[in-house]
Automatic annotation (TrEMBL):
Matches recorded under InterPro entries: Cyt_c-like_dom, Cyt_c-like_dom_sf, SoxA
One Pfam family this sequence matches: SoxA-TsdA_cyt-c
Residues that bind heme c 1: 96, 128
Positions contributing to substrate binding: 235
A GO BP entry: sulfur oxidation
Protein name: SoxAX cytochrome complex subunit A
Entry coiled-coil feature ranges: none
Similarity comment: Belongs to the SoxA family.
Keyword terms: Electron transport, Heme, Iron, Metal-binding, Periplasm, Signal, Transferase, Transport
Cofactor(s) the protein needs: heme
Amino acid sequence: MPGNLKQGIYAGLIFAMGAAAIAGPEEDRSALRAFYEQRFPGVELDAHVDGAYALDADKREQWLEMEDFPPYEIAIDDGADLYETPLADGSSYAECLGEGAPVVKQHFPRFDAQSGQVETLEQRINSCRTAAGDEPWDYLGTRMSSLMAFIAYESRDETLAIEVPDDPRAQAAYEDGKEFFYTRRGQLNFACSSCHVSMVGNALRAERLSAALGHATHWPVYRLKWKEVGPLHKRFIECNSQVRAVPLEAQSESYRNLEYFLTYMSNGMALNGPASRK
């Protein structure tokens, strides 16, 4: 069977399983892991936390050399200072983020029963700020990315443990994120799954297309083209723009649901952010 046809069948099976009423989040996660296990039999599933560098030995060597002097270190230091700075009412992020803080990234995004929506860690940080009388930060701004880099660094090696509770609103949010992942959009008619499932491992210009498995483990990321540390939603915006679709706002409900789905798919994998990427 030709390789491309085989890949298309695998991707179709995953979509069919995802779309079926009987397929829940855990069935989806198992199907996606099985797909990548068959697609890349020589690659350990956990290695996908390194993105495309799990699939290209030459690029991985260059990336590891860059990690010797990680360009995100300044952001971590700045984030540590922000974390220790008292909020307007004298309280702290540690008190607001709760038990285990700052090691909390493994539990976000999460479903918030009070609002009935997915809550990301960035939203939680801004909730801490506004409750204390501070102004919320720009979700794409430097201060938010720096604090997220510090929390991600402190949370390294923790295992992702995202829950989709037995609540119809949580199930709906998860399904909405899954639908976004598999829906084609834009003038180029590409879905997230087009690059990261159907064509995963292939070269797109000079880059290797990474697996969706592990996509949520390493953010925020210092991208050479950004020349700064940025959040996952900035990458969503960039991806949508690249396929000539109208991007959504960072932290929009659809992007939060997409993050919820993607992060659940990486459940059981170790956090390794922040990271550097080309």
